[in-house]
Amino acid sequence: MKKAGNTHPKKPRLHPVMFAGTGSDVGKSVIAAAFCRIFRQDGYQPAPFKAQNMALNSYATPEGFEIGRAQAVQAEAAGVPCHTDMNPLLLKPVSDQTSQVILNGKPIGNRDAYDFWRCRDKGGNAKYHFREEVTAAFHRLAARYNPIVMEGAGSISEINLKDTDLVNMPMARHADADVILVGDIDRGGIFASVYGSIALQDDEDRKRIKGIIINKFRGDIRLFDEGRQMLEDICGVPVLGVIPYYRDIHIEEEDNLGLAQKSMMAEIGKVNVAVVLLRHLSNFTDFDALEQDSRVHLLYTNSAEDILKADIIILPGSKSTLHDLYELRRSGMAQAIVRAHREGRTILGICGGYQMMGVEVCDPEHKEGSIERLPGLSLLPTSTVISGEKVTRQVRFACPMLSARLGGMKGYEIHMGETRPLGDAKPSPLALLDDGREDGYLANNKCMGTYIHGILDNSEFVDYLLQPFADKIKERRDTFNYQAFKETQYDKLADHVRRHVDMQRIYQILTDE
Question: pLDDT by residue (tens digit) across 104-115?
Answer without folding.
Answer: 999 988 877 656
